[in-house]
Amino acid sequence: MTYTPVFRGLLIAFATLLLVRGESLAADTVQIHQTDSAALTITVNDQPFTTFNYGSQLPKPYFLPVTTAAGVVLNRALEDASDADHPHHKGIWNAIDEVNGVKFWAEKGVIRNTAVEILTASGPKASFRATNEWRHPESGRPEVVETVTVTIHPNRLLVYDMTFSASTNDVVFEDTKEGLFGFRVAPSMKEKNGGRVVASDGSKTTAQCWGKSFSWVDYSGEVGGKTAGVTIMDHPENFRPSRYHVRDYGLFSISPFGEKAYTNGAQNAKPVELKTGATLRLRYGMYFHDGDAAGAGIESAWQLFSGK
Question: Residue 184 burial by CB count (10 A; 0-12/13-18/19+): exposed, middle or buried?
């Protein structure tokens, strides 16, 4: 078939628009593979994305490594001795301190996975469900049970839809900055090493974004000579706007449980209590992209995540 120059130009422009939005002309496929009894490997178009590690020997489940479409590994490696601060910062994880007084963020209490179920193994998106017991370090009793559905889209948007259940006792999430849904960027991406942080309203730098609420915040930088980044998103239907714990040394997380801590005492603490039998749902997104925030199609990913 022969195309006129004008029609060919329109096709190229349309394809470029789709790629900027994180889509493609071909049918994209996300797949979840049961690697072994304690890991799920997730690919996009047969290329590596991430692995969910949930073995019983781990202090908590986490995703690692995390790779962009261009093959950039965005996370700090666990074995990186040159960047070994905060060893509890492992890839993508979900934890927080001061749950009934237990510091799960600092791994003083164990978050033990008790079940994993693949819901959609392959398709235009894929998903699985995991159940995690947040156990007291002495009694071994679950202080709270987390049930999460993880959905992965082909543009490498990971949606973490969690429900906390006070199954056997009352649960109190105290006021703390140490939480909740987090990522540790590669050392070369750190703001102190030239990385860049920008929020949905245009605010820039960790100093301007720390402790504040935004629809999304993006952290990007150079890894192996390539530019890449990660965006954390707060769902508009969460029970209150969450705040960002974003640091120049590479920590990047979001939490709704630190009204006093994140405002340096300007607001009163607002602990969240779940009576026995009650539940609390929270939804967050992480979008992993090549290039900087300006050209990464973040707004399109945000619309996909939020339904806006």
Answer: buried
